[in-house]
Amino acid sequence: MLGKLLGILFGSMIGNIPGAIIGCFIGHQFDKARRSQQGFQSAFGTGPSQAERQTEFFQAAYAVMGHVAKAKGQVTKEEIQLASVMMDRMNLTGEQKKIAQEAFRQGKESSFPLEDTLRKVRFSAGRRRDLLQFFLELQISAAFADGSLHPSEINVLQVVASELGFTAQYLQQRLRMQEAAFRFQQGGGFGGYQHQGQQSGGQWQQGPTASQLDDAYELLGVDKSADAKTIKRAHRKLMNEHHPDKLVAKGLPPEMMEVAKQKAQEIQSAYDLVKKNKGF
């Protein structure tokens, strides 16, 4: 209302009745913009800073990881080891490691507010889908720490995916890709396979097996019959989604950048194997 009154006043001073009408219109637009801004600030405040979002993401990731690990009823040594490995990969300092361990412990509590935590993560990430995808994949990796998925773990992952805005179909695809990635790592794929007859470090290395190739295709999310164009497109999409610098710019905690790098290397290794096998 203040904007309209001021608009009419100044409009009248400049151009009598026509000026008053124009001034009223401009004042009305001013009032609308002001109400909109006030409503936004009332509902959300000024919003968290980048550093605050990264801290929340970091703590939520380890807390949910602990919740996933406890889904079977008892946390296995493999899952505890995975959490420790993740901390080592992130080069966490003593204080950071304590924060991660405490968040992991809180996630194991029966009273842990899983849905609320995930909603906060989604709200904080906003439209940064790649960031949410990284969060989901981190939880899937935790569930695969011992090489298999328990039905209870799948149930928790379904909640995680749903709260983050991903469909059940999407989750299933990512579960297949992560299972293939797990086998691919176990088979040496992460470091790259040697071709049959190639010598490395004075020792002859065996080339990739059919199952290793299958895992490479699955990791990329493509069928073995896919043509070069489809495979290249899938590789480019995955690398874009997992680009460490882009993820950090979108809010990924710097401590998690090394994990993102390793995921990108894993994708590249699978692509190189498929590319050589296809001959393009």
UniProtKB/TrEMBL annotation:
Matches recorded under PROSITE patterns: DNAJ_2 (PS50076), PROKAR_LIPOPROTEIN (PS51257)
Membrane spanning residue stretches: 6-27
Key words, A-Z: Cell inner membrane, Cell membrane, Chaperone, Membrane, Transmembrane, Transmembrane helix
Record flagged with keyword tRNA processing: no
InterPro entries, per the entry: DjlA (IPR023749), DjlA_DnaK_co-chaperone (IPR050817), DjlA_N (IPR007791), DnaJ_domain (IPR001623), J_dom_sf (IPR036869), TerB-like (IPR029024)
Domain of life: Bacteria
Domain J: 215-279
Membrane topology annotation: Single-pass type III membrane protein
Location(s), subcellular: Cell inner membrane
Major site of localization recorded for this protein: membrane
Keyword Secreted: no
Pfam families: DnaJ, TerB
Residues in the Cytoplasmic compartment per record: 29-280
Periplasmic side: 1-4
Domain notes: The transmembrane domain is a dimerization domain.
Function: Regulatory DnaK co-chaperone. Direct interaction between DnaK and DjlA is needed for the induction of the wcaABCDE operon, involved in the synthesis of a colanic acid polysaccharide capsule, possibly through activation of the RcsB/RcsC phosphotransfer signaling pathway. The colanic acid capsule may help the bacterium survive conditions outside the host.
Subunit-level organization: Homodimer.
The name this protein goes by in its record: Co-chaperone protein DjlA
Naturally occurring in which organism (per UniProt): Vibrio algivorus
